[in-house]
Amino acid sequence: MPKPHLLCWLRWAICVAAQFQGYAPFEDDQLTYTIRVPQGTANLSLGPIYFQLNSTRLVQWVALGQGAAMHGANMFVVYTSGDNVTLSPRAGKGHYQPLYNKYAQASLIAGSGVYEGAITANVRCDSCITWEGGTENPANPFSPWIWAVKYGKPLNTASMTATLREHDAFGTFFVNLLKATGADSDNPFIDLDRASITRAQTEIFDHEGFDKKRTAHAVLMTVAFVLLFPVFALALHIFPSGIVRVHATLQLLTLAVTIAGFGLGVAMAKDVYLLSHHHPIIGTVVVACLVLFQPGMGFLQHRHFRKTGGQGRFAYLHRWFGRIMIILGVINVGLGFQLTGVDSSAVPKGAAIAYGVVAGVIGLLYMVIISLSWRRQRTASDSN
Ligand code: HEM
Ligand code: HEM
Ligand SMILES: *[C@@H]1O[C@H](CO)[C@@H](O)[C@H](O)[C@H]1NC(C)=O
Ligand SMILES: *[C@@H]1O[C@H](CO)[C@@H](O)[C@H](O)[C@H]1NC(C)=O
Ligand SMILES: *[C@@H]1O[C@H](CO)[C@@H](O)[C@H](O)[C@H]1NC(C)=O
């Protein structure tokens, strides 16, 4: 079993058990597809993947393929051989019969056969991560696959090059390969626990909505951590005393901005099932810590100051905890850029460099202002 991630437990208890993705085109038992990526293959982006085709209806052929359409798809067609089933790897070239693909490395494994009218093909594929003309990224949460079925008289041939007639039904679905990942096994379909199969999706991923969320999330978090938090912290040093109330109010507003950004982040992570990356983990920790501790420590220091006129324990805690969280937040914005992909259209290299420069300049300014204010305080106390 994959190690359950804390956030998994909190939000999607189901992801602990998810080790297979399944798809039933007719929403019933007559035709089911099940896909499994072994953990070792996921780790290395290299190795076998497994899938099952299972039809309880008499079919001439039934097929599964990697790709969004026939053209370019890495296909696997299954039909009866007489006493068992034949697995025929095919390469899709267009809207005509896909031809036998001699480069494919795929084989039937135990459990395959025709049992009481049900055709089952359990397949181990060693050319499904990289194949002639394509690749699969095992971390892709929206991997497109195609399926098709032709009803009628069984073909009953062991020939892998049998002539196929056009399908009666076909379609595309999207496999979350992260949810199809589970422990290494030579045959994951032996004693298959149907409860560990999660449904593949049919609706097309809303890229536009996702892009909007991502942009808003990035803008809110960048502005909050690189600009607002540091500036409102420095306000205490730039302006004379009496400003704590302003600092508190403005920081609480900025905190609200980061909570909004966090909500968008969680929505995105849910869309693409990416909660266990460093970026969402660090982000969650920083936002949770800021909400839970920072205002409290600030208020406690403020109360202490009103009573004694001095700095208590909480002043140091609040100051250093605040500084560390701001720095973590700034780093995490960079990790977010990395997650989206530096040098992609969403994060051009120039934008990432500009971000680094701006964050660096603000960090330097912060240190200069702090040390100036510290020196001013020291000379003030020296002259007393
Ligand atoms: C004898 C073999 C085949 C023939 C003659 C054939 C022919 C066609 C034709 C004419 C279309 C367009 C249909 C339309 O738009 O209404 C089509 C679409 C499609 N076929 Fe096939 N097909 C064959 C095998 C397969 C196999 C084996 C698969 C699955 C592995 C498949 C999956 C699809 C899918 C998903 C589409 C819709 C996406 C696209 O346009 O490519 N077909 N096929
Ligand atoms: C999450 C929001 C907040 C953040 C990120 C934050 C951050 C900071 C930082 C970094 C400093 C130290 C500035 C420096 O010397 O580098 C500071 C000082 C201070 N903050 Fe906040 N702050 C927040 C909210 C609050 C709130 C709600 C109060 C409530 C009154 C507060 C009260 C203070 C006080 C009294 C100081 C001066 C402590 C001292 O004497 O050194 N802060 N804050
Ligand atoms: C194929 O599907 C039928 C109907 O859901 C099921 O009873 C059977 O166990 C499945 N075969 C395998 C090998 O899972
Ligand atoms: C895959 O990587 C994870 C950590 O990244 C590790 O815990 C696991 O043992 C690895 N599994 C295999 C089969 O290589
Ligand atoms: C069908 O062939 C596969 C692969 O060779 C084998 O593992 C399986 O036991 C066979 N099934 C039957 C019912 O003979």
What does this structure look like?
The chain crosses the membrane at residues 218-238, 250-269, 281-300, 320-340, 352-374. Residues 216-337 form the Cytochrome b561 domain. Helix content is 43%, strand content 21%. The chain has 384 residues and is α+β, with helices and mostly antiparallel strands. The protein has two domains: 17-202, Immunoglobulin-like, CATH 2.60.40.1210; 207-383, Four Helix Bundle (Hemerythrin (Met), subunit A). The strands form three sheets. Strands 1, 2, 3, 8, 9, 10, 15 and 16 form an eight-stranded mixed beta sheet that branches. Helix 3 (207-238) runs antiparallel to helix 6, helix 3 (207-238) packs parallel to helix 7 and helix 5 (278-308) packs antiparallel against helix 6 (313-340). The chain is elongated, with a radius of gyration of 29 Å. Mean pLDDT is 88; it is low at 1-16. One 2-acetamido-2-deoxy-beta-D-glucopyranose (NAG) is lined by residues 84, 108-110, 112-113.
Assign the structural class, choosing from mainly alpha, mainly beta, alpha/beta, alpha+beta, or little secondary structure. alpha+beta
Q: Which regions contain 5 or more consecutive residues with pLDDT less than 50?
A: 1-16
User: How many β-strand runs?
Assistant: 16
Order of helices and strands: HEEHEEEEEEEEEEEEEEHHHHH
* Cα-atom radius of gyration: 29 Å
**Count of helical segments?**
7
